[in-house]
Design a protein that fits this description.
CATH topology of the largest domain in chain C: MetI-like fold
Number of domains of chain B: 2
Distance between the termini of chain B: 59 Å
Oligomer: heterotrimer
Number of strands of chain C: 0
Order of helices and strands of chain B: HEHEHEHEEHHEHHEHEHEEEHEHHHEE
Distance between the termini of chain C: 56 Å
Helix content of chain C: over 70%
Strand content of chain B: 15-25%
Largest sheet of chain B: 9 strands, mixed
Largest sheet of chain C: none
Structural class of chain C: mainly alpha
Shape of chain B: elongated
Order of helices and strands of chain C: HHHHHHHHHHHH
Chains: A mainly alpha (about 375), B alpha/beta (about 350), C mainly alpha (about 290)
């Protein structure tokens, strides 16, 4: 292209260099083109550098923890920053005495990511289970019904605006509106209904091991728990999943719908055909929602209760990878603690990159990158 | 207008806004200092800062209550002028900062950690003891009408409500004080949870900072958390009396906390001052009292200018003298004169790039 | 038999139609409920001193958020000053140099992937890559800084701006480029004087969208800008931001500060609403003119 242009350049001088001899024109062309190429290529290279820096920095800073714990980090459930001192016990479980004094053993700090991985996975999955059916239904409505009612435009604008609301706003709403409501109304109502149903006791009671003995105690209903976290996440990913699914369904060829209708399908059957046709794109929408839920920080930190534990009950406080980082990173002064947090960050990064890559592959060109 | 011209115009405006803004602050003969750390004394430090601005209007100090762990980290990384922590520096932390002769650590004020709870309809303060608190936070005592709580509070009708412990999620001196005290009261607590700025609580709700824990208590009926007394008073959260070494139930007040600090003066030596003052003897002693510390480098080379160093030293000297009178108003206890003498000695050795500060 | 089955099918279809409509209704109500509540409470908490006063340090009379509003504007200006040129230039590369597919297509993929990096991770990167090194090199007293915060925000902006710019440039008809080249313009002239200007409206829409997106970010600033209660215009200091201040106030126990948080959320939402509305207007006008031309 460039050579073509310079070959005919003398015929139509550009306003910039009007009147100059053809040779210098060509030189300035070459210079301008080279500069543009340099700037653009350089900028694009910076994007690659950004990803490289991200991975490299996290990897090197997390290295002490990676070396110490290896992949076992991902399945270890102990996260204890302080050292413990407890009486040394022998094989028979007897306290070891020496010169009439109890011998103490020191237990080193331990770091394991299982509780936060559990918290992230569980809250994201519950959020998806709530948000995806609603989003698909709404997307069908937006594509098949709303245009005929002339409300597709305003509805789409509304949903896009809501996708732009920062997570901080959802967090504040969750903290001051949803959590107190769950605590005073929803939680007690669920407890009253289900408490005595056999097999559901785990929802309302937890077993704690205290000094070797197992004690069962009721889980206090605080409103800031896994349930609240998942609900807030669900509300937050509704707009994005809805708008991407809408774009996917819009892209289904009209002939597909008309064909099924011509064959005598009902409205719903044609919708099913549509969903089936766009299934890979819709799966991509779900993955985008998952990526967003998993990486969500501010809202979840405000409503999930921030306790590093694995408890199956929806009324138990939990912690996600992102909320752990928000809570502890600024204060982590000890080397291994900080490295372990960076290890968590690395896991979070790899996970969300994975979800995003899958999602992008499935919704190529169907979702605007800026909308995400 | 071509796109280049437009872009140039836009960025020129942007840059001039930023540069102009930067220049305007540089012109003012204002000295700015940053401090960060413990949330425990933060209400008092914030008060100190605003009072000191009245004394020295040219000095602006920004104290960030990010937790003691964060304070130690910030001063170690030299990202602040001074760090604040409720837990004295550990050996490891002192090494990380370059050794004991490079640091000045001194108590700034005495505070008390109180067991604060949310039990609607209860008028008088509840009584607690160390081992009962330990068992509550370990989950052994799980409802408010537990016989052991009832035993300490005869005549009070305690509700049959589940207890939600509220704790700190961040590295915190308040946690250090509270867990260190409980570890002296319960061997089981010492072995299971242990003492430290951040421990693994087996149950309950986490909040960030004293502010966050206070908010959790406010929002959760049946909760009990450990916060600095000032946060309980300022937010009208009920808090209980704690049984001291002499067997008396004592409510935290500036007087009962001050008593706990009296014995410490003789043990404070050198420039890295520390004394644990929980569980002290005496009839009137509040048992969960603690010094809160300020940490600076002995040579303030982490500060850019002499003016900054001078401003910092001026502020610190004012804090332990003129500033102490604000302590009682804000429910902290002022340093006794013996402790103040030790602090004065420690602060007199500060320098900037090797030069003494005048 | 057959008609009964048809009847069931029809009934199912009608029922599912209702379900879809209900889904849309639920989503809209839910989200209106959220934003409506935020606006309602925020409106009760906002007043003039919110915009004009700075924090006092007294928790009972916390002052206003002028420092945070200014801080956010400066952070955004700085982030845009870094992010927009880089983003647009890489967008131009992805679109105009797409024949260099060996380099361009991995870059496009990486840009896509980067839009999905959790913002808290970006904040940690900012801490490790800007805050810590700067404090080591300068042994400066304060290395949490507005610059670090702006860098973290720019990190989020660049891939978004790059991809939107690319898509918008791709919408510029090939004939424009061919015409320009045929008239003897160089590639640089074609790109800078023909292609970019004709996509100017839609590119600036994309830029606004990216700025709006980062305006609401909190997590990337937690460990970089850190926040400050002082009114400062020097980005080499710990820097205030509206979102950080709202977060601090909202998670604390003081009712007066919570009020400010509500008011802050309202201001943030109002800004985002206006930007989104603007984007929509610009986008639709642009689409209309383009259609009219072709």
């Amino acid at each position: 292209m460039t050579t073509d242009a310079s070959a005919i350049s003398a015929a139509a001088p550009s306003p910039n260099a009007s009147g100059g001899p053809a040779r210098s024109l060509r030189r300035s062309f070459r210079f301008g083109d080279a500069m543009l190429g340099l700037v653009c290529r350089g900028s694009a290279a910076i994007i690659a550098l950004m990803l490289g820096a991200l991975v490299l920095v996290l990897l090197t800073s997390a290295m002490p923890a990676i070396k110490q714990f290896g992949l076992g980090f991902l399945v270890s459930s102990e996260w204890r920053v302080n050292e413990l001192e407890r009486p040394l016990k022998d094989a028979a479980g007897q306290v070891v005495m020496e010169d009439g004094e109890i011998v103490m053993e020191t237990i080193k700090p331990a770091f394991g990511a299982l509780p936060v991985i559990y918290g992230t996975a569980m809250s994201s999955l519950i959020a998806l289970a709530i948000a995806v059916p609603l989003s698909f239904g709404a997307a069908l409505f937006l594509v098949r019904v709303a245009p005929t009612l002339r409300i597709a435009g305003p509805l789409s604008f509304l949903i896009e605006f809501l996708a732009a609301i920062p997570s901080l706003a959802y967090g504040i709403w969750g903290l001051f509106v949803l959590a107190p409501f769950l605590q005073s109304h929803v939680g007690p109502a669920i407890k009253a209904t289900l408490e005595n149903v056999p097999g559901l006791r785990w929802m309302f009671y937890e077993s704690v091991t205290i000094a070797g003995t197992v004690v069962e105690r009721p889980i206090p209903i605080t409103g800031r728990d896994m349930l609240c976290g998942s609900l807030v996440l669900a509300i937050m990913i509704l707009p994005i999943v809805t708008s991407v699914s809408r774009d996917v369904l819009k892209a289904v060829p009209r002939t597909q719908i008309e064909g099924t209708l011509a064959l005598g399908a009902t409205w719903w059957q044609s919708c099913v055909a549509m969903l089936r046709y766009g299934r890979s794109g819709l799966f991509g929408a779900v993955m985008l929602g998952l990526a967003r839920a998993a990486g969500e920080t501010m809202a979840i930190t405000m409503v999930i209760g921030n306790n590093n534990q694995i408890n199956p009950s929806p009324f138990a406080p939990a912690q996600t990878m992102a909320s752990l980082l928000a809570n502890e990173f600024a204060e982590a002064s000890e080397g291994l603690h900080q490295a372990s947090l960076l290890y968590v960050a690395l896991v979070l990064l790899v996970m969300s990159l994975l979800f995003n890559v899958i999602a992008r592959r499935l919704v190529v060109g169907k979702a605007s990158p800026a909308g995400h | 207008m071509s796109i280049i011209q437009r872009a140039a115009w836009v960025s020129a405006v942007g840059v001039s806004v930023v540069v102009g803004g930067g220049a305007s602050t540089a012109q003012a003969s204002e000295v700015r200092l940053g401090g960060a750390g413990a949330t425990f004394p933060a209400p008092l430090y914030t008060k100190w800062v605003s009072e000191y601005e009245k004394v020295e209007p040219g000095i602006k100090i920004d104290y960030r209550s990010i937790g003691s762990g964060g304070g130690v980290k910030a001063i170690t990384d030299k990202t602040v002028a001074f760090g604040a922590s409720d837990a004295p520096l550990t050996k490891k932390e002192i090494e990380a900062m370059g050794g004991e002769d490079k640091i000045v650590q001194f108590p700034a004020v005495i505070g008390g950690v109180v067991p604060a709870y949310n039990l609607p309809g209860l008028s008088q303060p509840l009584n607690f003891s160390g081992d009962v608190l330990a068992d509550i936070f370990m989950g052994k005592i799980s409802t408010w009408d537990d016989p052991r709580l009832q035993e300490l509070n005869s005549g009070v009708s305690l509700p049959k409500l589940a207890i939600t412990p509220a704790f700190r999620t961040d590295g915190s001196g308040t946690t250090h004080v509270f867990t260190s005290y409980l570890a002296t009261q319960s061997l089981a607590f010492k072995g299971e949870i242990g003492a430290g700025k951040q421990v693994k609580w087996p149950l309950g709700q986490g909040g960030k900072g004293n502010e966050g824990v206070a908010a959790v208590i406010q929002q959760t009926a049946g909760s009990i958390g450990y916060i600095e007394q000032n946060y309980a008073v300022a937010n009208k959260i009920a808090y209980g009396a704690v049984k001291n070494k002499a067997g008396k139930f004592i409510i935290a007040t500036p007087e009962t906390m001050s008593v706990a600090g009296e014995g410490a003066a003789t043990t404070l030596k050198g420039t890295v001052l520390r004394a644990d003052i929980w569980d002290q003897p005496g009839d009137k002693t509040y048992p969960i009292s603690a010094f809160t510390y300020i940490i600076v480098y002995k040579d303030l080379s982490n500060l850019k200018t002499d003016a900054e160093a001078k401003a910092l030293v001026g502020f610190l000297n004012w804090a332990i003298s003129g500033g102490q009178k604000f302590a009682t108003d804000m429910d902290y206890a002022p340093l006794s004169s013996g402790v103040k003498t030790a602090v004065d000695t420690a602060l007199s050795g500060l320098s900037h790039n090797g030069k003494p500060i005048k | 038999m057959a008609s009964a089955r048809f009847e069931t099918r029809r009934l199912t279809s009608d029922a599912m139609f209702g379900v879809c409509a209900a889904c849309a209704a639920v989503i809209v109500t839910l989200l209106l409920l959220v934003s409506g509540y935020l606006v309602f409470i925020g409106a009760g908490a906002i007043n003039l001193s919110f915009f004009t006063d700075v924090p006092t340090g007294d928790v009972a009379q916390p002052g206003g958020m002028r420092h945070a509003i200014e801080g956010t504007l400066i952070l955004l200006a700085l982030a845009a000053a870094i992010g927009v040129p880089l983003g647009v230039a890489s967008g131009v590369y992805l679109s105009e140099y797409s024949h260099e597919w060996l380099f361009a297509s991995p870059m496009r993929f990486i840009a896509d992937v980067l839009t999905g990096v959790p913002s808290i991770v970006v904040g940690i990167l900012g801490y490790e890559l800007v805050v810590v090194p700067v404090s080591r090199w300068t042994s400066n007293s304060v290395s949490f800084s507005g610059y670090a915060g702006a860098a973290a925000l720019a990190f989020i902006m660049i891939p978004i701006v790059a991809r939107t710019t690319e898509e918008m440039l791709r919408l510029v008809p090939k004939t424009y480029r061919e015409g320009s080249l045929a008239l003897g313009a160089s590639k640089a002239q074609t790109v800078l004087r023909v292609v970019l200007p004709s996509a100017f409206g839609s590119i600036s829409t994309g830029i606004m969208l990216a700025i709006a997106r980062v305006a609401g970010e909190t997590a990337p600033l937690l460990f970089t800008a850190l926040g400050s209660r002082l009114l400062t215009r020097d980005p080499s200091e710990p820097f205030p931001s509206l979102t950080l201040q709202i977060y601090t106030y909202a998670t604390g126990p003081y009712p007066e500060q919570k009020n400010l948080a509500w008011a802050g959320i309202l201001v943030l939402l109002a800004i985002l609403f206006v930007v989104n509305l603007l984007i929509r207007v610009v986008a639709s006008r642009h689409a209309a003119t383009r259609m009219g031309k072709s």
